[in-house]
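Exam revision sheet. Question 4 asks you to relate a sequence to its structure. Input first:
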Amino acid sequence: MASTPSLSKLLPALGNAMVVYHQGTAQHSERVGAIARAIGVELGLSDAKIEVLHWAGLLHDIGKLAVPDEILSKPGPLTDDEWVVVQRHPVVGSELLHAISPGLDPVAGAVRAHHERWDGSGYPDGLAGADIPLAGRVVAVGDVFDALTHPRSYRPNAFPTDTAVEHLTTGAGRLYDPVVVAAFCRSLARAQQER
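Answer key, C-alpha cells:
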C-alpha cells in the first residue's frame, strides 16, 4: 500500500464517514481493525502487511455506506431483496477504494474478500482456500468474532467469547483459514493473559 501523506489523511476520513453514517458499524470496524492487526503480528507479518490488515479491518464495511440505514438497523431477519443489497457491500467498498487510489489495492482486495469462505461458499466471488487474499481471510475471522461477541440489530444479545471461539475453531478448514484461526486464538489468549 502506498504510504503517502494524502492517503494517511484520507483513510481516517473514510473511517469517520462510517461514524457519521452508522455508529455501530464504525465501532465494529474499529474492533475488527485491531483484531486484524493482532493476527498479523501473531503471523509474523511485516509492518507493511500489518498496516494493510489494520486498514482493511477498519474499512471492511465501508461499502455499507451504500446500504440504506433501515436495512443496516433492521431488528429482524432481512428479506431476500434486502440481503441482495447487503451482499453488495464488499464489492462497493472495494470499488470505492480502487477509485480513490491504486495504492489502496491491497486494502481493496481484502475488503472485497472478507465474506469469502475457505470452502468457496462465500461471496462475492466464490473464492476458496489460498485463492482468497490473506488479508481477506484475516479480516473474515476478525469480522465474525466481533459480530458474534457484540449485540447486533437483528440479535440483541452477544455470544460469550468461548462460544465465538468455538464457532471459529469448528469452522477452521471449512469456513475459515485454519492458520488464521489458530493465530487469532493465540493472540486472544495472549490478550487475556495481559489483562
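Marking note for examiners. Residues 23-42 form the longest helix (20 residues).
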